[in-house]
Write a structure and sequence with these properties.
- The protein contains nine helices and twelve strands.
- It is of the alpha+beta class.
- The protein has one domain: BirA Bifunctional Protein, domain 2 (2-Layer Sandwich), CATH 3.30.930.
- Strands 1, 5, 6, 7, 8, 9, 10, 11 and 12 form a nine-stranded mixed beta sheet that branches.
- A hairpin with a 5-residue loop joins strand 3 and strand 4.
- The longest helix has 21 residues.
């Protein structure tokens, strides 16, 4: 009698409890309620729910967003990427004339695991043709208050510029301070030593000061919208001319937790290509995996993206602040280590 083929992996012991959900039944019921509320909100607003692929032929060039790579062995080893956001595909729909849209989907970012991070997470993303970032902030404010109604007492929402945040908290101008100034400010405010960060990495020092000295105090008892980030942190947002020029971008914070990131969307394909190419140069300099520029997105921008604003909101983090949970795993059916 032939020997039975052994399974490729050993089975966990019978006493192993890893099969159990990460979240409680109450947390899962709350998630269902939140999804019902937000679908009701968008239905009243006339915003269409859409679905786009989770697997894409091009990843993101942003060196700060690590993608999961999938090899399709049936297509000559062609690479596909699990989407880090549905943004590119949704903009193609916008360019095709679909109108205001939203999507609730899974997004994936490799290596992002911790108290507020899970490599697989739930993202709500929506786009409003005819809106700028100011009008979209009001829309986000309205939706989040609908989701929090009856669960969290909120004071009046705060709308504050990035510049005002730094001036009020640290007494410096984030648009004119040198990298050396920022490094000294970090030392004076007892920010933990950052290994391997060069003195000339200005945006990195700004991020460190924001995350360590400013963000923990934002949105205490209310929603806090921070807007007009430095031009160098525009990502896919358009630039507002001025002295200094600023990115038409905002982020939402509550109880020190970042919940959403929104843009008055860049419409110009040539400028977007330049930004993608600059990010590829940075990736090479840092020894990161090369990425393919999404030519379909650029073609859509050439075709004509309507004037619009868009935002991505983390549903898992929103539920965390609603329930005062300290770990993202406590609002997920199965976190990364149990998936």
């Amino acid at each position: 009698m032939a020997e039975a083929t052994k399974p490729p992996f050993s089975q966990p012991p019978a006493s192993n409890e890893d099969w159990r959900p990460s979240a409680s039944p109450e947390a899962l019921r709350l998630r269902a309620e939140l999804l019902s509320r937000l679908r009701g909100y968008f239905a009243e607003q006339g915003v269409l729910e859409v679905e786009t692929p989770l697997l894409a032929s091009a990843g993101v060039t942003d060196p700060h967003i690590p993608s999961f790579t999938v090899v399709d062995t049936d297509s000559s080893q062609r690479h596909r990427y699990l989407n880090t956001s549905p943004e590119f595909a949704m903009k193609r729909l916008l360019a095709a004339g679909i109108g205001p849209i939203y999507q609730i989907c899974k997004a994936f970012r490799r290596g992002e695991i911790g108290r507020h991070h899970n490599p697989e997470f739930t993202l709500l993303e929506w786009y409003r043709p005819g809106f700028d970032h100011h009008r979209l902030m009001r829309d986000v404010d309205s939706l989040v208050k609908v989701l929090m109604a009856g669960k969290v007492e909120l004071g009046e929402s705060q709308f504050i510029t990035y510049h005002e945040c730094f001036q009020q908290s640290l007494g410096i101008d984030p648009h004119t301070a040198t990298a050396k100034n920022l490094r000294v400010c970090a030392q004076e405010n007892a920010v933990p030593e950052v290994c391997g960060l060069a003195d000339d990495e200005r945006d990195a020092w700004l991020d460190i000061l924001m995350s360590h000295c400013i963000q923990p105090h934002l949105g205490q008892g209310h929603l806090c919208f921070v807007y007009h980030y430095p031009e160098s942190q525009a990502a896919l947002a358009r630039i507002q001319p001025g002295n200094p020029p600023v990115a038409e971008r905002f982020e939402l914070f509550h109880e020190g937790v970042e919940l959403a990131n929104g843009f008055h969307e860049l419409q110009h394909a040539d400028e977007q290509r330049q930004r993608f190419e600059a990010e590829l140069v940075q990736r090479r300099a840092e020894g990161q995996e090369p990425m393919i520029i999404d030519e379909r997105l650029l073609s859509a921008l050439h075709s004509g993206l309507p004037d619009c604003a868009g935002v991505a909101l983390g549903m898992d983090r929103l539920q965390m602040v609603l329930t005062k949970e300290n770990r993202i795993k406590d609002v997920l059916a199965f976190d990364y280590l149990r998936s």
